[in-house]
Design brief:
about 400 residues; mainly alpha; 16 helices; about 80% helix; disordered N terminus
Length: about 400
């Protein structure tokens, strides 16, 4: 990539100067934890109420995750040709309407279909919002903004289960989807007021399927972009092994109560919030590529300690702080991955966001049953985390050793 290909770093546009706009973008980008974590505790009640099996109700979770991942891959490139604002607003409206459909679903089949629509709506809003940031900023401004978004989004996995628990304590599972509908409507109003169209003068015909596929091919033809995708996907599968398995490990294997496990999860998420804020301070002083690698190293070391704690019988005394180390490293991996892929894909930020977000989230979500299928123990969790994150680190180190920087 020549110097002419890299745009000069602008000052932050006026629409991003207010805290309300940044918070709106962050909530739209991070809608997934709210749509998943809020209703998970209610799955048994949903099965009883709808007369469905556990597997049928769990399919509603899978349906959302698949639709959210696939929706990003399809919609992101389209937004590069047809604009961001309409797609984002359409996505938040669809999310709100689908949430209402979930709340009134008379059977499991209707719930699954509504969750697919909810996932597509969430994907449209998320990928368009990330592309808006890519349109409007470059360089240090973009990196710090994505780090800020990552810090806000890290609060989601902590807040969503707590909100879900409060709602379920005073009402039925249907009320959780009413809350999501209200959130979708609120984000629609906030986005309509605060977020402008950021794609200026799209090329004629740029919204066609052929043009979208061409943009994907252009990005995938960049070796560095491909390796960032491989690194991000492998590491995400490892991290999702923690997300999917830790509750079983701590509650069933080590006998933690729900309250104590919530403390484990919340403390780990707090480490991620803190580390993303550190990333925001360090970016500009150190190369993003180096910070990304350092995050992967930290995650790998933490995963190795998780496995050591499981194999030696030390248990939670080592596994808990080791997982905190992993989540702290993840606070550098997420903003590093986003900013590096967006830098390479600055000519088509919607497509770049779609490939990075869609593939990582999709493969990570698809791999969540793997740990359970292998036994769901601390040893399995640690082994999967270490194996996949170490692969991501190895690919990143190998690609870096071949020379060049993300902007070359």
């Amino acid at each position: 990539m020549s110097d002419d290909d890299v745009p000069a770093e602008p000052s932050r546009p006026s629409w991003l100067t207010g805290r309300g706009a940044v918070l709106t973008v962050a909530l739209i980008v991070g809608i997934s934890p709210f749509a998943t974590d809020m209703y998970i505790p209610a799955l048994p009640a949903i099965a009883r109420d709808l007369g469905a099996t556990t597997a049928e109700v769990q399919l509603s979770l899978t349906a959302f995750l698949v639709a959210f991942a696939a929706g990003q891959i399809v919609i992101g490139p389209i937004s590069d040709g047809r604009g961001r604002r309409r797609i984002l607003l359409g996505g938040t409206v669809l999310f709100a309407l689908a949430s209402i459909a979930c709340a009134v679903a008379p059977d499991a089949a209707t719930l699954v279909v509504a969750r697919v629509a909810q996932g597509v709506g969430g994907a449209a809003g998320s990928v368009a919002a990330r592309a808006m940031v890519g349109d409007s900023t470059t360089g240090l401004v973009r990196s710090r903004l994505f780090a800020t978004l990552a810090a806000i989004n890290a609060v989601g996995p902590v807040v969503a289960p707590l909100v879900g628990g409060v709602v379920l304590s005073v009402s039925s599972w249907r009320a959780t989807f009413v809350v999501l509908a209200v959130l979708g409507a609120a984000l629609t109003c906030a986005a309509a007021r605060r977020l402008p169209e950021t794609l200026v003068d799209p090329e004629p015909g740029a919204g066609s399927l052929l043009a979208s596929l061409r943009r994907m091919g252009t990005l995938l033809a960049m070796p560095r972009f491909r390796w960032y995708l491989v690194t991000g996907c492998a590491a995400t599968i490892g991290f999702f092994s923690y997300i999917a398995t830790s509750s079983f490990v701590f509650q069933e294997q080590y006998g933690f109560g729900e309250g104590l496990y919530t403390l484990v999860f919340a403390s780990n998420a707090s480490c991620m919030i803190a580390s993303t804020l550190v990333f925001r301070r360090l970016v500009g002083r150190f190369a993003e590529d180096h910070l990304f690698t350092a995050g992967l190293v930290t995650c790998t070391v933490g995963s190795a300690l998780v496995l050591v704690g499981a194999l030696t019988g030390v248990g939670p005394a080592l596994i808990w702080p080791a997982l905190a180390l992993v989540t702290a490293g993840w606070g550098w991996v997420i903003p590093g991955s986003i900013t590096l892929t967006q830098a390479l894909g600055h000519r088509a930020p919607g497509t770049a966001a779609a490939l990075a977000g869609g593939l990582q989230f999709g493969l990570g979500g698809a791999a969540t049953p793997l740990a359970g299928a292998l036994g769901g123990t601390a040893v399995v969790m640690g082994a999967l985390m270490l194996g996949f994150i170490a692969v991501g680190l190895a690919v990143q180190v190998w690609a870096s050793s071949r020379g060049g920087t993300p902007a070359t």
